[in-house]
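ping. complex inputs:
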Amino acid sequence: MTHEPYDTLAATYAVGALDGQERADFERHLADGCDVCEAILRESAEALAALARSGPPMVPPPAVKEELMRRLAATTPARRGAARPRPLVWAVGTAAAVIAAAAFIGTYVAARYEAQLGVMARESAALRAKVEREMAVLREQTDVYANAADLLRDPQTQIVTLRGLGPSPEATGRVVWHPVKGGYVFVANLPAAPPGMAYEIWTIGDGAPRPAGLFQVDPSKRGAHRIDPVEGGKPVKVFAVTLETSTGVPTPQGPMVLASAK
Amino acid sequence: MATIGADLVRQMAAGDREAFAVFYDRYAPVVFPLILRIVRERADASDVLQEVFWEAWRDAPAYDAARGSPEAWMVTRARTRALDRIRATRRRGDTFVAPLDEGLAAPHESAPDAAERAADRGTVMSALDRLPDVQREVIELAYYAGLTQTEIAERLKQPLGTVKTRIRLALERLRAVVKTSA
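pong. complex structure:
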């Protein structure tokens, strides 16, 4: 079968206009893994970004940035960025130094063995990039664990069990929750979200479910993510996780994969 | 490829607030006109802008440079959130289509500030102008007004297939422009 019908579907999907059964079919096609469609969607997103850039830039009201920086300072522990020794990160940092040294020696050797120069330089650059990526992930993880451990010392903190539902009955989860400080969700046995999708966590109190963050799981089917506190410290009765598009949605639309008992 | 933006996101993922400030200065002037174009009200646009950057800070660890530039990451997010906003404010009514139509008609009927609106439109018209009218029209209805293909077909009284073809051709042309200018 030719790919052409999908070109049209992909373009329509890229501007958010695909609906009905066609949308469901196309999303299934994407979930099956289609490099051509992935490329069309990626290039379309870049083209639409270029469209946004093509007009004169407009400086937003300064109050927006001020408010953001204030929120950031208020909800992000100062230690998230710097200081505080983190053994795991330190270990990775050492690994990076070793690789950097290897790259240096590699360059020296390559100077003598001209033909190998390109190959080794490329390999070492790729390795360094990989280590940097892994470091960023590890740093994020250690922060989550450190902060969750801090929360556990607080007598107000509760632990809530999540049970797998529908598409993922074997999935399990725990929420470490503090009514004022927010908390963290830890999941296991949850399959990776299909391309373009992510898991979204919801806090449900008396009103409508509130979106509380997007996360992905790692190859071992585990994940950990911060849950923002509910404004005004209103009680949360249920925590739930649904599968949504990777940019998230304001109200749950996808299947529920984990939820706490009442 | 531009990697400064990707580096900034990586630093944000590591909790670097200064990187976030630089990231904001770099991308807010790009996404703000887009948000304003969709939601129309400056106060609403400021709210959405804040939400969008707050999410970018929160989701920075999930950003994957292989899947797109930080700019596309932000523009996609900004467009989605801006449309969420207009849908939320119009939802209390009956059907979904009618309120959207009403919103789309608004700029022609009530004009709080004609000059500002013209400037807003100019923002996106410049690149859209290179498209034939019928292609530009479907992009405006889909991308900026958030209509689905079915709604666009009804509105333009054109067959669904025609609408889809116009969208495809328009995007092909926009992609070609980006490729040649990249």
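DSSP finds nine helices and no strands in chain B.
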